[in-house]
Design a protein that fits this description.
Helix Hairpins; about 70% helix; transmembrane; PhaG_MnhG_YufB; transmembrane helix; mainly alpha
Length: about 120
């Protein structure tokens, strides 16, 4: 097993811990937040940053120990392209299904009824 320089150890540890912290906050938000829209917000923002931090740490580790690998870069590109798209589609599905929102969740559309797929209840 190769020993890393001290600066690389600290930098890799920083990014891995930063990523783990963001992923943890996103996971707690997914469990604790009250309605669908706020639950959707927590993992799409912070967990994406969490995985990004871990991927940066992994990329740094393999760049220092062996050689640069494009695998981590490809994973990051795929993640940062697909996470916002899937979150947008889930949010639109939630709006069209009229999922129950708490009173603090604001619907900022001018005429929400025009987006409804069914008759108003």
């Amino acid at each position: 097993m190769a020993t890393l320089p001290v600066w690389a150890d600290w930098l890799i540890s920083f990014f891995v811990l930063l990523g783990a912290g963001f992923a943890f906050v996103g996971s707690v938000g997914l469990v604790r937040l009250p309605d669908f829209m706020s639950r959707l917000h927590a993992p799409t923002k912070s967990t994406t940053l969490g995985v990004g931090g871990i991927i940066i740490g992994s990329s740094l580790y393999f760049s220092v120990t062996t050689h640069f690998s494009a695998h981590e870069l490809l994973i990051a590109i795929f993640l940062f392209l697909t996470a916002p798209i899937s979150a947008h589609l889930l949010a639109k599905a939630g709006l069209h299904l009229h999922l129950k929102l708490i009173s603090n969740t604001q619907d900022l559309r001018k005429k929400p009824e025009q987006y409804a797929d069914r008759e108003a209840d």
